[in-house]
Amino acid sequence: MQTIIGVRFQKAGKVYYFSPGRLDIKKGDKVIVETARGVECGETVIGPREVADSEVPPPLKVVHRIATPEDVQKVEDNKVRAKEAFAVGEKKIAEHKLPMKLVNVEYTFDMNKIVFYFTADGRIDFRELVKDLASVFRTRIELRQIGVRDEAKLMGGIGCCGRPLCCASFLGEFAPVSIRMAKEQNLSLNPTKISGICGRLMCCLKYENDGYCNGTCCGQKKTVTKAPEQGSIVATIGGDGKVISVNTQRHTATILLNNGRTVVSAWDDIVERDSEDIAAEKAADAENEVLDQAAGEAEDVEASMRERRPRRERGNRPRSERRPQRDMREAREGQQEGEHKSHRRPRRAHDKGERREWRENRENHETEKIQGEKPRRSRRPRGGKNRDRHPKDGQPRENHENHNGEKTE
What is the pLDDT of residues 308-319, one digit of tens each? Predict the structure, then answer.
């Protein structure tokens, strides 16, 4: 077991571990340590704690001393000198006409090195620039090219949420963020909505990703019910349907049933249908549809053939098929003759009483018909002035002769 402390040299920077040695160091103390860049002053962010030897990152260096007020003042003076070096660096870059952007300048604690941070689209040949800067500052010069994420971290700013950038506030290291995380959270894939001011995917997509992917996408295993995929076919208590939306926080899904209803069900109450079963049902439905269509076409053909058959062949149809037409024909004839349906003789009346009643009704009807008959009107030609004229040539009738050659009046 070893005792270690965590030291940070920049705000929201990476935490480095050191051994406190025999010093009594507390959280928040300023300490002087030796790093790969030289002697630097940092702030203790993790107090002394004991860890196993296997967890200690090698090599573990020892803290030189606790920073004094003079050391703290020296750090502040170095920040002022860094601002002056920033202006000189921009001037020299403009003189050499290099396609690079200066982001930040840092002095080491012992002022043995000045680090210039810049961004560029590609590799830059800055050898002449280093010589000019070394002649001005008379110390070691280091130019370090960084990415757009590191640029946003060093410069800071306000995010689309209205809060300071996470990378400049508390994030020590950048976690990998992929577009799959945005898809898992059902976010809009519009780059302007899921990208930060650096132009890359927002770091906050990583925060809630474990809750959406059930911890399986990050190498963790949790006993959480799997969420149904959007667009999949599932079986519910109300019947089969299609998943149209998923609520990951509440573990519910909105399902459009086959009957047109929309229901919201919990993940536990949903069973996903196998693709093989769905394919088999679709094949069966298609087969039934084909059979129904074939039956309908056969009925249409049979009906058309009936219409095309001659009248004699149509008369040989079964009695059950001819009876409706015969009834309609007899009813039509009965209406023309003016007789009532009750006056007609029943077809299958085997009772003598019914036959007698039928005869009486028929005789009464014929008597009424004779008494109510009106005399027929003569078929003499109508009209006034043209009555005496022949209908063919319009001449007076006395001037015409009949077929025997005699005149008629």
Answer: 665 555 555 555
